[in-house]
Specification:
Layout (H helix, E strand, L loop, with lengths): L9 E2 L13 H11 L5 H4 L3 E5 L3 H13 L2 E5 L17 E2 L11 H11 L6 H21 L24 E2 L5 H19 L2 E4 L2 E9 L2 E9 L5 E5 L2 E4 L20 H8 L4 E2 L4 E7 L22 E5 L17 E2 L1 H5 L9 H16 L4 E2 L2 E2 L2 E4 L1 H7 L1 H19 L8 E10 L2 E2 L12 E3 L17 H21 L12 H20 L5 H15 L6 H21 L11 H25 L23 H4 L1 E6 L2 E4 L2 E4 L2 E6 L14
Parallel strand pairs: 1-24, 2-3, 2-10, 3-6, 10-20
Antiparallel strand pairs: 4-5, 7-8, 8-9, 11-19, 11-21, 12-18, 13-14, 13-17, 15-16, 17-18, 21-24, 22-23
Helix pairs in contact: 1-5, 3-6, 3-12, 4-5, 5-12, 10-11, 14-15, 14-16, 15-16
Length: 661
Amino acid sequence: MSDLIQDLYREGEPIADTKCPDGPIENRWTEAKFENKLVNPSNRRKLSVIIVGTGLAGGAAAATLGEAGYHVKSFCYQDSPRRAHSIAAQGGINAAKNYNDDGDSTYRLFYDTVKGGDYRSRETNVYRLAEVSTAIIDQCVAQGVPFAREYGGLLDNRSFGGVQVARTFYARGQTGQQLLIGAYQAMERQVTAGTVEAFTRHEMLEVIVVDGRARGIIARDMVTGEIETHLADAVVLASGGYGNVYFLSTNAMGCNVTATWRAHRKGAFFGNPCYTQIHPTCIPVSGEHQAKLTLMSESLRNDGRIWVPKNRDDCDKDPRDIPEEDRDYYLERIYPAFGNLVPRDIASRQAKAMCDDGRGVGPKVGDFRRGVYLDFADAMERLSRDQVAAKYGNLFDMYQRITGESPYDVPMRIYPAVHYTMGGLWVDYDLETTIPGLFAAGEANFSDHGANRLGASSLMQCLADGYFVLPNTIRDYLASGPFEKVDEQHEAVVEARAEVTGRIEKLLSINGERSVDSFHRELGHIMWEYCGMERSEEGLNKAIDLIRSLRAEFWRNVRVLGSADTLNQSLEKAGRVVDFLELGELMCIDALHRRESCGGHFRSESQTEDGEALRDDDNFAYVAAWEFGADRDGDDVALTPTLHKEDLVYNFIELKQRSYK
């Protein structure tokens, strides 16, 4: 075993994706589907798959595998699969249909996605995503998803950040909701048919690994508190991302990392955990006791113009009283080729720079004004108020309900907030993790977006994985079945169950003085300050020390109310914060070791003269796949992970510095 590097981590053997075929990139997915083994229909009935999560990736996978004839067990912690966080997605879903005949193609979507991710994603995975994108739209239209249409009845498109074509299909500002209803209806059809068994209000707390293979999960019934064992031939994690490690984010407050983190602790490598997306158009923080932030769709940047006052003295003025010549439309000024539709990481950093320069707007929170204007006055003059309302009316209504201000009359105030995580469980071309039989889909894996996700690509990836990729790759694994049955008294099953009950008993026994939320809020503050939009070596080292101290205090002084054998939200939160405290440390270690800037990972030591991200392709053109490791000190652990590097090779796209100017 190698020595610790910076007293934090070790470096292990390189890792590689060995599942993807060779040859022309446009033929690889077709070849992979052909080469993957088949399972005949009568054998599918003998095979079972557990799917954790019922969002777009999990719901689509459950519906598709159930339709194919497998026995599927579907788990979600919500009271209905329809409440999965995919429902909150607003703006749209990308697909290379080229309905506008504006130069779009599968290759251009592939290129835009790799470039948008700052050349830190796999070519093969991204090309497959672009290739499958067109089939997603056909699938959803067939399900009855009410995409927006032009006057003549054709599907409408709009643009999102980081592209110069219109390829985003949308359903007003509620695209995620409509897509999720489609997946939910398809899944419920299989529930009625008996191929899918749905377990709502259940939270996965451990993965069961038997003889090196994933064979089930330990879940807690959140209503009764009962600890349940569920066994299967394969396990799919489609449990979403980990943005709530920052406490304040646009994610639903229940979103957590527990499913993927428990898998990581059992041997699944975690890829690029420091890659976090900060969304530029969110309603600003309003006070110290806020617990949730609200997204305003990126689609608003199609017609809204972002600006701040040129003069600091004007920041207190009503924006309608600031003349045009005293406004700084800074994105249009700095990035004339893309204007307000630059990628999210760039728009977010520039908003921060304007506020750091003392030109932020809105009320002060602490000592700073954290807001910039998103103005629709020009759009209403060009299009009319009614046309703007037809496009964005539900978003405007939501903004007014939250802030008390009407975007029809006064510019919106927006500021960046944590929204999405590009990191996740490391998977190969088949979406299989380093634990055989354990697959990860959607935001739970790291695979498609590199260091920055382009807008409207999350829904695309989730449905691509759920409807088209996973069903064609998991069968190659399941073709080796039927597998030997595992008894609930098997040593590995009993051990996994004991780990869960022991952790619950420990949390309830501490009986300290601080609430779970107070620890979570403090962790979020550390992460935002030192591992947020800008990171530095000094700040990251400080964050690691602070997180370790906070975690040690948590195990000494947390107070978890209630008991284990009933509904207990305090206990649920405590288990999730335990995992966030470990994840936060790994994120900081990953950010510290990656001494370059790329996409959403911005190191202050690595930037160009004009403040743009400066990559170091000679030393960091790889995926960082982390293997769990820890040194235990009583109840607390200090992470000592092992880094495995997967080299990123570009044969079909030229590797170069991004420019959106």
